[in-house]
Amino acid sequence: MSARPTSEPAGPSVKTEFPGPETKKHLEKIHEVFDSRNAFLVCDYTKSFGNYLVDTDGNTLLDVYSQIASIPLGYNNPALIKTASSEEMLDALVNRPTLGAFPSHNWSEVISTGILRVAPKGLDKVFTAMAGSDANELAFKAAFMYRRQHERGGPHVEFTDEEIESCMNNQLPGSPQLSILSFRNSFHGRLFGSLSCTRSKAIHKLDIPAFDWPQATFPQLKYPLEEHEAENAAAEQASLDEVEHLIKTWRLPPVAVIVEPIQAEGGDNHASPAFFQKLRALTKKHNVLLIADEVQTGVGSTGKFWAHEHWNLPADSPPDMVTFAKKAQTAGYYYGNPELRPNKAWRQFNTWMGDPARAILFRGIIDEIERLDLVNQTARVGKYLFGKLEVLAKKYPQDITNLRGKDRGTFIAFDSPKRDAFIKKSKDMGVNMGGCGVNGVRLRPMLIFEEKHADILIDRLEKIINAI
């Protein structure tokens, strides 16, 4: 096996068109046994390092998409290689436990020294999962069971025979007519429950049966924010009014509201801290749970470990649940209220209930984030990058519009009237980036992204603008 690189290249290097000849060969082989139509690149991870991704044609790209916002510390990170090579990891991989029924002797230690070490304030418990969609669906289940426990009179009240019998036929009262409220342009996953809350692209939802669940309008802010304060405040209040109306009148009563701190897939849509503070107050007023979906925004990319920290909620009023995945390399939801744990065993259960190997990796990620102070670095570099983008937007006002993400670390996006051509040309210029919404170009650098990488990115962005 060839030695893996130990340092980053000096910069991007493009040798072929995209896709290159070797990539095409690999895609043909992959497609014989696996659907490769979604593939952007065929990567050679043995040659990739840090912020740079190498494909099978030897093209070296500055990766400011980090797969899909899911790589926190870059490729072939030495600290994570050390974590992955440990005896503890070997045991977790070879003897993977079914955590709900046969947990490993060190599972509580793995959780407490890793996942719970970075738990959002006020949320000291966790239920681990396999992926972001899974985490959201498990949070939905917790919300439904919590609501029914309260309606029934408390967790100590037993189920009736009618409830037990009717649920097996998907009928009332055992299968209650309740809902989860989400927002237009949201993305919460592609499983059945999460897909009913996903509203960003039709291709995700076509032909799939869906629940009759409500959606509210997420505020559509105008940029620059400081020039549209009154309009944006009105848009946020209209959204809140719609949420309250739906909570009070929807035919299937909502038990929870799920919201992304920044709508990512749906276009990098932002709202102010005041909006989220009022949303939290509104959900409390109506005894509806608030789920913060931090699958994409979590783990440092906004300049805080959790993006909802920007909301500045009162200490006694955090979100009821916070879901996580992607950069954590594991998944699940945090919660604080012990009543969100079901009243009986086997109600929130599956074979794996998470993966200790991935939880160990997340602990290694946390160690490295803390050692290198990467959350603060991301906040600093994000301000630097945003300032450079503001200059570029003024120089090319027709090509970079609605620049957004100020003071949100490197979680930055802008609109381009030629978005698809922009994304395609970016690879020719040695940059891997992604789109969102209709016209959005989103930047999702890794936490190890520095000012020198920002300078390279700005240079390549200008070249892309002049080439399309």
UniProtKB/TrEMBL annotation:
Any one Pfam family here would be Aminotran_3
GO BP terms: gamma-aminobutyric acid catabolic process
The record's section on InterPro entries has:
4NH2But_aminotransferase_euk (IPR004631), Aminotrans_3 (IPR005814), Aminotrans_3_PPA_site (IPR049704), PyrdxlP-dep_Trfase (IPR015424), PyrdxlP-dep_Trfase_major (IPR015421), PyrdxlP-dep_Trfase_small (IPR015422)
Instruction: Show the segment(s) annotated as Disordered.
Output: 1-22
> What domain of life does the UniProt record list for this protein's source?
Eukaryota
Q: Which CDD domains match?
A: OAT_like
Which of the seven top EC classes does this enzyme belong to?
A: transferase
Provide the Gene Ontology terms for cellular component. Answer: mitochondrion
Q: Which SUPFAM superfamilies match?
A: PLP-dependent transferases
Regarding protein family, the annotation reads: Belongs to the class-III pyridoxal-phosphate-dependent aminotransferase family.
Name of protein: 4-aminobutyrate aminotransferase
